[in-house]
Design a protein that fits this description.
By secondary structure, the protein is mostly helical. The protein has 6 helices and 7 strands; from the N terminus they run H-E-E-H-E-E-E-E-E-H-H-H-H.
Length: 292
């Protein structure tokens, strides 16, 4: 009997060894799968934001300028159209709203008649295509993070790199942006030529009307082609000077005379400017009559 048990002992040991090895293999495989499972997570997307400026109460010509300078598109809603002298009575979204920078978020404005003659062609939509209005508080769908592959880094000796001798670089000169008419100095005190009830005061942060008209004439000398962008810029500056002069702003009559000369120059160069000249001459007659 003892001999038979002894004879079967090697087989029992072999079977036990097989089970032990199988268990170890399963344990290793499970551990390997657990170590390869990626951790769940998400990347918080960050999008630039912009703040809607306050244009309520402004003349439309100034309101649309402020919106365009801030990177917004705009459109006019309601029965009153986008003439330069009309007044903004509401805006959507309201001032101070923080939006996602979708490119050119479209601000809707409503206007009312300001009691002045609506000269020229109305502008009810911005000259470029607007984008969607998305509140900055709107949650962004997070993208799952893909597990990074495990890479074993090889330790290598850092090569000795000689640092190049830095050469003195002359400071670069700042180039003035030519999209908008700019002036180096503004006049601190600008008494109005006359007072118009309900008209906004002349903003001292902007250049005087005479400077704007002079620089517009200079700008024409460097823009010989009547491209869409050039014509829009020219008409915008015209509307600014004419509207400001009608509001009684400082030296409005002088600015209109300079503007009429610029309109004649544009007509010679581009074949455009006759309507603007007529509007400027009508405004000059009104301003001279009020200034007496």
């Amino acid at each position: 009997m003892a001999f038979r048990v002894a004879a079967h002992l090697p087989r029992v040991a072999i079977v036990a060894l097989v089970f032990v090895l199988a268990g170890a293999t399963l344990t290793y495989g499970a551990a390997k799968r657990l170590s390869a499972t990626p951790a769940k997570g998400a990347v918080s997307a960050t999008t630039p934001t912009v703040v809607v400026p306050d244009v309520t109460g402004q003349a439309f010509v100034f309101a649309k300028g402020a919106l365009e300078d801030g990177g917004f598109a705009w459109r006019v809603a309601g029965s009153v159209h986008g003439y330069a002298v009309n007044k903004v009575v509401f805006q959507s979204p309201v001032a101070g709203t923080k939006l996602r920078d979708t490119g050119a978020p479209t601000i809707t404005v409503g206007l009312e008649r300001a009691g002045y003659k609506e000269a020229g062609e109305p502008e009810d939509i911005s000259p470029y295509t607007g984008t969607a209005v998305v509140l900055a508080s709107t949650p962004v769908a997070a993208k799952p993070v893909s597990p990074a592959p495990v890479v074993r880094k090889r330790v290598a000796k850092k090569p000795v790199v000689k640092k190049p001798v830095a050469k003195a670089v002359a400071p670069t000169k700042k180039v003035a942006h030519t999209t908008h008419v700019t002036a180096a100095k503004h006049v601190a005190a600008r008494p109005p030529a006359f007072v118009v009830r309900g008209a906004p005061k002349e903003p001292l942060k902007e250049m005087p009307l005479t400077n704007r008209a002079k620089l517009l004439s200079q700008w024409l000398s460097t823009h010989s082609k009547p491209t869409s962008a050039n014509v829009r810029h020219f008409l915008y500056q015209n509307a600014w000077v004419v509207t400001g002069a009608r509001f009684g702003w400082w030296h409005g009559a002088d600015a209109l005379r300079l503007l009429i000369a610029a309109d004649a120059k544009a007509e010679r160069m581009w074949g455009v400017g006759s309507k603007s000249e007529v509007a400027a001459r009508q405004a000059l007659a009104e301003v001279e009559a009020r200034s007496r």
